[in-house]
Amino acid sequence: MANFVALPDIGAKNSVAADLDLGEAINTLRREKNAVILAHYYQDYELQDIADYVGDSLDLSRRAAETDADVIVFCGVRFMSEVAKIVNPTRTVLLPDADAGCSLEQACQADDFSRWREAHPGHVSLTYINCSAEVKALSDIIVTSSNAEAIINQIPKDKPILFAPDRHLGNFLIKKTGRNMILWPGSCIVHEEFSEELLLQMKTEYKGVPVAAHPECPDTILGLADYVGSTKGILNFVSSDPSNSFIIATEPHIIHQMQKDNPSKTFIAARGVSESREAEACPCTHCPFMALNSMEKLYLAMVNNAPRIEMDEDLRLRALKPIERMLEMSPKLASATTQAAE
Ligand code: 13P
Ligand code: SF4
Fold first, then answer.
1. Which atom of ligand 2 is found nearest the CA of 102?
2. Strands, DSSP E only, in the chain?
3. Which residues form the domain of 10?
4. CA of 232 to the centre of ligand 1 (A)
5. What is the 277 CA–ligand 1 centroid distance (Å)?
6. Residue 90: band (very low, low, confident or very high) from pLDDT cuts 50, 70, 90
7. Does the model's pTM come out above 0.70?
8. 165, 193, 256, 292 - which has most CB atoms within 10 Å?
9. Are residues 155 and 221 in the same domain?
10. If you ran DSSP here, which 8-state letter would residue 140 be given?
């Protein structure tokens, strides 16, 4: 197989002693293995707190490319750890749970994507980083929610564009840039949870409170937002805006960093539809893929050296090209990640 997650060997450690201090054990392994721990803003609070860097997809891919650590432990989802392996192949890249996927990645299979490209000759293909290494290898330029607009604006006006796999982000970018792109019909199951009706109710309940939303939300939600941007963009917005309270329409684990950076401000998570329908509902605005990682799995991954991203060199080189184009075309943002306190 060209790209896979190597699982722990038979007989590998698969449980943790009840009295083990996980934080201490992870710190010891980090030192012994010369490892760096990267975490996305949607991870559990404990994982964000133990990470060396917490960031959005673009920040973390830059960190992965620049690190001289021998081991990169990626507390995020599989496409993020694949990017770390693509940009820094000599490192061991660990993903605490091998099943941590992404609905956008699932919605865009390489065979279908390849047929789509063939059906649109002469188009430049911009692909959101939330996709598999195989789809990256078939794309011209990778984008994230923080750099997509700036990258589209660098593409010659007469060049037609294909955008995959998130149709909501695609529609948002069409409005922002005025470029008429052909969109792949994928979406994020988490951001699809937000509803116009519930958000309107919340805006009545919390009069005058600004709404910050991720561009993976449907158009109806973005139309009600005061700010739309990547996870890092939302964090910057709530820190710089003078308001005291904010409604946050994205995965609510991001509120942990907001609260740390702005202890006197109040952050209210936008409600999801499933939550409002069922008395004992799951918090369906939580990403079920990100939620698979845990402190126990982080520790076991470091002990077992697995789950580990393995990639065929030919695939890696093909996937690297559109990522390098993205890094070259992205405006440099100073100190993009949040560095964990010592
Ligand atoms: P960001 O790049 O904004 O962190 O988004 C990643 C993601 O998966 C959002 O659902
Ligand atoms: Fe994928 Fe959505 Fe989870 Fe982000 S929040 S990782 S887009 S499923």
1. 1
2. 3-6, 35-40, 53-55, 71-75, 92-94, 124-128, 141-143, 161-164, 182-183, 211-213, 227-228, 245-249, 266-269, 308-311, 338-339
3. 5-101+291-311
4. 9
5. 26
6. very high
7. yes
8. 165
9. no
10. S
What are the pLDDT digits (tens) for 178-223? 999 999 999 999 999 999 999 999 999 999 999 999 999 999 999 9
CA of 144 to the centre of ligand 1 (A): 8
Q: Establish whether residue 217 lines the binding site of ligand 2, counting it when its CB lies within 6 angstroms of any ligand atom.
A: no
Give dist(CA 124, CA 109) in Å, integer.
18
For 207-266, the three-class secondary structure string (H helix, E strand, C coil) is CCCCEEECCCCCHHHHCCCCEECCHHHHHHHHHHCCCCEEEEECCHHHHHHHHHHCCCCE
- Supply the pLDDT for residue 252: 97
For residue 283, the model assigns a pLDDT of 64
Q: Check whether 332 has a pLDDT greater than 80.
A: no
Q: Is residue 326 part of a domain?
A: no
- Per-residue DSSP letter, 193: G
Structure confidence at residue 336 (pLDDT): 42
Q: Indicate whether 124 and 197 sit together in one domain.
A: no
Atom of ligand 2 nearest to the CA of 191: 2
CATH number of residue 112's parent domain? 3.40.50.10800
